TrEMBL record:
Entry protein name: GNAT family N-acetyltransferase
HAMAP family, per database record: Eis
Bilayer-crossing regions: none
GO BP field: aminoglycoside antibiotic catabolic process
Family label: Belongs to the acetyltransferase Eis family.
Native organism: Leucobacter insecticola
Keyword annotations of the record: Acyltransferase, Transferase
One Pfam family per UniProt: SCP2_2
Residues bound to acetyl-CoA: V91, A92, V93, R99, R100, G101, L102, L103, R104
Domain called Eis-like acetyltransferase: residue spans: 217-317
Amino acid sequence: MSFSENYSLTLLDPENRLEDALRLDAWAFPMEIPFDDLLRLQHAIPWGRFWGVEARDSSASSELSGMYGAHTLRAFPVPGAEVACGWLTWVAVHPAHRRRGLLRSMMMHHFNDCRERGEAVSGLAAAEAGIYGRFGYGAATPQMSLTVPRGAALRVVAGSEALTPEMHIWDPALHGDEIARLHRDVARLPEGIGRPGWVTWETPELRESCDEDAPVRRHGLEALRVLIVRDASGAARGYARFRRKPVWDRDNAEGVVILRDIVALDPAATHLLWSILLDLDLTSRVDASLLPIDDPILSLLVDARAAKPVTHDLHWLRLIDVPRALAERRYAAPLDVVVGVRDELIPENAGLWRVRVNTEGAAEVTPSDVDPDFTLDVRELGAAHLGTVSLAALAQAGLVEVHRPAALARAATAWSWPVAAGANWIL
């Protein structure tokens, strides 16, 4: 779908259009930060793949009517593999230009751009959950939030007492490279399995944005802290970044540890990190979000119920090239099914696809002319792509048309994955 004659699309550059982009962002998303301060911050804008929509008859020549960008990821984890992904971001339409088809036109431009770049999947984090389903994105990565009381008992883990903790004020120059390595390495654990959806800081813009701890973004709280645990050789085995919020109730300390992210390469490191976070002076709880729904802390807590777990969506996935995307990932069991796919926006995806998976989990995907075993929209295919959302559960909700129940059972097993999709930051 092309833009109407009233609008044009242009590639934005940082030298001339940063202020225009931030002004539109401030229109689309209510801001607490003064605009002059915004200009001085790091922004994870994917320059070189950042597009603006301009009204041809606009009296303000630099004002943007819409914009979107895409991060070029080359190691996005899917079940059993890392693949190219065009990660949609910075999507905005000016309030004065809504209801004119700009979002749809930008989405179609993004889909075409991904196909030209050989990216079979696109992902995003949705500011509003009701928007992107109609463009074929399915909620594929859930997240969990916890409120863990101070002193919560943990089950014993051998080896945690042999690790050495250290705490620092967060300094990207001193700690950034080491933390980035830990964050990347945990995506491939457990060994031979890996965690689908665990996006890392692949580009300089993403790394700079995740490293930043600007005072204006702290909402009056203290500077970011980093806790690192090391083994006897001095190698880092895990980290946690956090800040504390002072709270007093009738002279009683009720402070809160706000956990930004936590990563551990083994159970002992997980145990020690949480043991320390749950025993900080003048605090009453740890608030943690962006945790995978099967995060080890749930199994380590003696009373997980007291942590009040809450789950909701995190990242959404869209298959841009269905046969390629299905062939790029690995599967949990052998399979031979024909899948009927509906896709109103990318006609090349629609049709019948035979998915044959060998004993090693590798798939061959080819067109078919036989009746499908089940039929679904590309949105549901994207939701199930990382192995956490079950095809059988989608069928129970009426979102998968089942023609052969036995085939659906086999497919639901093959599409699943031993580790839940997860990520610990919003891309």
